[in-house]
Amino acid sequence: MLEKSVAAFEAALEVRTQALVPMDWAATQNNLGTALQVLGQRKKDPKLLKRSVEAYQNVLREWTRERVPMNWATSFNNLGNVLRLLGESRKGTRTLEQSVSAFRNALIERTREQVPMDWAMTQNNLGAALQSLGKRQDNGQLLQDSVTAYENALEEITRQKLPMSWVMTLANLGAVRLLLAERTENADVALMALNDFDEVVEFFREASHAQYMELGEEQRKKAQALVTALGG
Fold first, then answer.
1. CA nearest neighbour of 117 among 69, 176, 165
2. Can you give the pTM of this predicted structure?
3. E strand map for 28-178
4. Are residues 173 and 201 in the same domain?
5. Which residues span the domain enclosing 2?
6. DSSP assignment, residue 37?
């Protein structure tokens, strides 16, 4: 089905050219980028992810900040997501650095005041990119920046509004705090990670999600061991 979607969008682009209908061309490029991203992620195919990046970059040729600022920001958010996926499959840090830059561009227009939930989702995405980059570079400042981004996201992604998104973001926050605590040997940060995973495990126990509960429990045990080792 996704392969057919990609083929259909590519066929449409033969008619919807940039010269004739630039904004429609950009919208179709955006749809193509999304289909390629999902397909590339499903197949774990970097070539498809690279094509997705190219499609989103094409979008930004017409969806400029001056013309359509929110579409421009959304395109950078989409681009950041696929760059993170591609960067995690590559050696080096350049693609992950590009992902972080893309999310920061998106946040220029995706402000909390204007679009609070979009702002929070982009903060969550930024946290993930910073987490991957910080882990790759063994960089404590980037890991701390990731913590801040996840904390920002949780100001709007609450348990009451979006319970599943909330618990996934909290699990991500706990994971990066655990990395940071291991790197800095900071018992207080390790304790915060433990508290995060306590909440994650409780949530999945109440929701009867056994698989996720087990994953959360594994992380909780790691955090507990680190707290004990650091004398927390």
1. 165
2. 0.95
3. none
4. yes
5. 1-62
6. H
